Amino acid sequence: MLAIAGGKGGVGKTTTALGLSAALDAPVVAADADPDMPDLHALAGVDREPTLSSLDGRDPGAVAQSLPDESGVSVLPAPRIDDADGLDRSLDRLARSGRPAVVDCPAGAGPDAAVPLRAADATLLVTTLCAPALRDAAKTAAMARTLDAPPRGVVLTRTRSAPDAVVDLLGCPVVASVPAAEPPILADEGSRTAYRRLAANLGEDIL
Q1: CobQ/CobB/MinD/ParA nucleotide binding domain: from which residue to which, for each copy (predicted)?
Q2: Strand ranges of the sheet holding 65-67, from the earlier edge strand across to the other edge
Q3: CATH number of the domain bearing residue 14
Q4: Is 207 part of a structural domain of the chain?
């Protein structure tokens, strides 16, 4: 299970979770682990229900909704707030299902962000190049290492550059730079190309 994480909201985590999932050749479950700000389902164009909490002993394939125009991607929206206490169990069920999964995490390095990182095998960081976002991404990277979900790379959004200083700060390689684009971002060919390159760089074994 790959956690998509970052220090700040609005840096492109959800777009990256969906863009990477669509770019991978293997069937993938894209899950939203952010009950407070659930937006994966809206970006994916699927219904708000059933959610990640609906697994409860059921196979993800029987619960998740197919991403329109991308039959290889199944989407599990975030649990409702009143079901959020069971998020750790839901993520554990997803991990034990054996299905490759990409999990969109809450922003920051707080307790809510720690829950999906504990369930993940590795982390993909997402950040812009602004100083506050980079500082917060460094905190998220440190937490991911502590929770045994080490960062395998960082995706820089709204840029075409990949400064060496970012590698030094975050302690992992820049695996993709996604150029700025007007919404819908995943309809932009430049963005789609960047996520295809990201998928090729990471490989399916990352999941």
Answers
A1: 2-162
A2: 65-67, 70-76, 28-32, 101-104, 2-5, 122-127, 151-157, 174-178
A3: 3.40.50.300
A4: no
Whether residue 196 is contained in a domain is answered as yes
Count of domains for the chain? 1
Q: Which one-letter amino acid corresponds to residue 179?
A: P
Residues 59-97: tens digit of each pLDDT: 998 999 999 988 899 999 999 998 888 999 999 999 999
pLDDT digits (tens, 9 = 90+) for 125-136: 999 999 999 999
Average pLDDT on 99-108 reads 96
Of the candidate ranges 37-51, 52-66, 171-185, the one whose mean pLDDT is the lowest:
52-66
DSSP, collapsed to helix, strand or coil, labels residue 15 as helix
Q: What angle do CA 138, 143, 145 make, to 5 degrees?
A: 95
70-76 and 28-32 as β-strands: parallel, antiparallel, unpaired?
Answer: parallel
Q: Is the pLDDT of residue 207 over 90?
A: no
Report the first-to-last Cα separation within the chain, whole angstroms: 5
Give ∠ CA 109-47-45 in degrees, rounded to 5. Answer: 80
Cα–Cα distance for residue pair 50/130, rounded to 1 Å: 36
For residue 132, the tally of other CB atoms under 10 A from its CB is 11
Angle among Cα 29, 32, 37 to the nearest 5 degrees reads 165
| Stretch 93-106: mean pLDDT | 95
Task: Give the Cβ contact number of residue 38 at 10 Å.
Answer: 20
